[in-house]
Design goal:
- The structure is a single chain.
- By secondary structure, the protein is α/β, with parallel strands linked by helices.
- It has one domain: Flavin prenyltransferase-like (Rossmann fold), CATH 3.40.50.
- The chain is 35% helix and 17% strand.
- It has 8 helices and 7 strands.
- The strands form 2 sheets. A 5-stranded parallel beta sheet has the order 2-1-3-4-5, with helices on both faces. Strands 6-7 form a two-stranded antiparallel ribbon.
């Protein structure tokens, strides 16, 4: 059997650790969820243990079976599933991950995190992560007007102060047929940020 390459496409610099990382990926309801498929696939190819959770809206854009196939592990779609343990709050998963990524993270989910709400499986798991020891990386995705709303900017300020890290968004063509800020970072940029954080070379 041919071994899986540890550094597919050169996107990940290799893991500077004795074991590959455990990475939690939360997917919320935005069209950019299709980009997250590439991120999950590349991480799995690089040897990372990837666990995916999806909000109900996210499953409208990409089927959970897609992420299950790409990660090689079951996907959480509800807080009431018991996959990694018998703990309905998924504390075990939150404690075991070395890094968490939410991509895409919508305006609504940014607001949930900023105000301490945990009413879906993604925000529930992230709410149980100790950010003093485990980085949480957010990849925003939304319309230009939504990005520049005062509420969004207030929430971003709060999340920065709370220790969340960000990658993107970028500028360009959006699904609403406009050009502006709010495009989710490309998979290569997200992977580079993950690699740098896990390997301890940046605070992102």
């Amino acid at each position: 059997m041919t071994p899986i390459p540890s550094n597919p496409d050169g996107l990940l610099a290799g893991w500077k650790r004795s074991t590959p990382p455990n990475i939690f990926v939360g997917v919320t309801g935005g069209i950019a969820a299709y980009k997250t498929c590439t991120v999950v696939s590349r991480l799995a190819q690089a040897g990372a243990h990837v666990t995916v959770a999806m909000t109900p809206s996210a499953t409208k854009f990409v089927a959970h079976l897609t992420f299950q196939a790409l990660s090689g592990h079951p996907v959480y779609t509800t807080p009431w599933e018991h996959i990694e343990s018998h703990d309905p709050q998924h504390i075990s998963l939150a404690r075991s991950c070395d890094l968490a990524l939410i991509a895409p993270i919508t305006m609504d989910t940014l607001a949930k995190l900023a105000t301490g709400r945990a009413d879906d499986v993604v925000t529930l798991i992230v709410s149980a992560i100790d950010r003093s020891t485990t980085p949480v990386l957010l990849a925003p995705s939304m319309n230009d007007v939504m990005w520049h709303q005062p509420a969004t900017q207030r929430n971003l300020k709060t999340l920065n102060e709370d220790g969340f890290r960000f990658v993107g968004p970028g500028d360009g063509w959006q699904a609403c047929r406009t050009v502006g800020t709010g495009r989710m970072a490309e998979p290569e940029e997200i992977l580079a940020s993950i690699s740098a954080i896990v390997n301890g070379s940046t605070t992102a």
